[in-house]
Specification:
Elements lengths: L5 H18 L6 H10 L5 E5 L2 E7 L2 H14 L3 E8 L2 E8 L3 E11 L2 E7 L6 H17 L4
Antiparallel strand pairs: 1-2, 2-6, 3-4, 4-5, 5-6
C-alpha cells in the first residue's frame, strides 16, 4: 500500500462531506458526518479541554517545531520564553495586551508528534485555534514521513 500523499489526504475528507450532504436531507445525520469530514482533513487526533487543545499528528518533530516558529512570525506573536530539550519544545508567547499563549511540542515516536496549545481564558481560545490551524496547514503542506 502506498503512503497517502497530501492530495489524497485532502480529497477523502471532501468525499465524506459529499456523502454527508447527500444523506443529510432528512436523516439528521449530517452534523456528525460533516464533523468527521472537517476533522478528517488532519492526519491525527485532536483533544479539547477547557482552553487547551492537544493534537497528535503523523509528523516528525523538527518539521513541527519549524511550523510553530513560522506561525509565530506570521501571527506577530511576542516570544517571552522557550525551552528546547531532546524531543520537547516549549514556548510562551504574548499577544494583545495581557493575553498569553503557551505551546508545547513533544516527540511521541519517530513519526508522531504532539502539539499542545494553551491559553488561560476561554475567551482567548480563538487565538489558540488559529495558531493550531496555521501550524497544521504548514504540516499538511509537507510530505508525509
Amino acid at each position: 500500500m502506498k503512503p497517502a500523499t497530501a492530495t489524497t489526504r485532502r480529497l477523502w475528507p471532501a468525499s465524506l462531506l459529499g456523502v454527508a450532504i447527500g444523506l443529510g436531507s432528512c436523516t439528521g445525520v449530517e452534523p456528525a458526518l460533516i464533523g468527521a469530514a472537517v476533522n478528517g482533513a488532519q492526519t491525527g487526533v485532536s483533544l479539547f479541554s477547557g482552553a487547551e487543545v492537544w493534537i497528535y499528528e503523523i509528523a516528525e518533530f523538527e518539521p513541527v517545531v519549524e511550523a510553530v516558529e513560522q506561525t509565530e512570525k506570521e501571527l506577530a506573536l511576542r516570544k517571552l520564553n522557550e525551552v528546547r530539550e531532546d524531543g520537547r519544545y516549549w514556548v510562551y508567547y504574548r499577544f494583545a495586551k495581557h493575553a498569553k499563549l503557551v505551546v508545547e511540542v513533544r516527540r511521541q515516536t519517530p513519526t508522531v508528534t504532539s502539539i499542545e496549545v494553551d491559553v488561560p481564558d476561554k475567551d482567548q481560545q480563538g487565538m489558540a485555534s488559529l495558531f493550531l490551524k496555521r501550524v497544521l496547514d504548514r504540516i499538511e503542506a509537507q510530505p508525509a514521513p
